[in-house]
Amino acid sequence: MLEDLTTAASPAPWPAAYPQGYAVVDVETTGLARDDRIISAAVYRLDARGEVEDHWYTMVNPERDPGPVWIHGLTTEVLEGAPLFQDIAEEFSDRLADRVLVAHNAVFDWSMIAREYARAEREAPVRQRLCTIALSKELGLPLPNHKLESLAAHFGVVQQRAHHALDDARVLAEAFRPSLRAAARDGIRLPLLECRPLKEWSESPAAPRIGRQSGPGGHSSGGYSSGGYPSGSWRPSRKRPVCPYPNPGRYEADKPLKQGMRVAFSGDTSVDRELLEDRAVEAGLHVATSLSRLTSLLVTNDPDSSTSKVVKAKQFGTPVIDEAAFGQLLRDVAPASEK
Fold first, then answer.
1. Which residue, of 76, 283, 285, 328, is most buried by count of CB atoms within 10 Å of its CB?
2. Exposure of 65 by Cβ count < 10 A (0-12 exposed, 13-18 middle, 19+ buried)?
């Protein structure tokens, strides 16, 4: 006897508390520091159930050296005729308004966007964000690491141009849709976080100003400045200056990082590792290449791996946090003089 499909259990209702729309965002930048700039941005607008409504992309003239060209491929020549951020801010706002900002390692994208709006003396119309790294953890997805390419591969999404804002946003939107449906099916609470726009902006007096490129050869008229990248497509030397601050000891949960802390990294990161390390150095932290009893903190997205650093961290009792949490802590590192 055939099953009476009319009496079969109906799918679970869509959670009423879920947002009414999403803006899946990716931005490419000149780097990870406080004074770095957005050089391209893309937004895929999705409705309440994750269906794509439209998409938008723009390049942005950062009015400075474009930074790691070997990652994003956008040279000074390409960006020279692009609009300034203040020229695209209104259209960007229209794409973000009344939606939850969705990004991979969302604290980074949100921080860069908030700073650009503050420079333009405007306020980004974003009140909540959702990190797809956090969502994948809530769903318990069996990912080998937390890179966007791994999330895409899990859902069978083909990535065509990694580190191109429009393609990264497309890939993320296509991976977010089934993630959202799975969360709704299982009644999972979405990991939404509040976004607090900056009210004002002032350039740091110690901000690195990087020389512009001067022609097709990619040679910089300004060379390197402290903490800066070269103007061409070659990677800078990774030899770093000695951290000027004493090691204050181990990181303590629910307290800020403090200048001088020794930070080690293990495994894959969603943000390019070298840029993440640069941001840590610029905040006054000591980036350690190995882990010892003096290490203040280990940053890893895979705390259950068997890498030597993770194994030693367990032996020494070294605190361990993931990349997203580390990015959040980098926003407010305490000065070395604070007790």
1. 285
2. buried
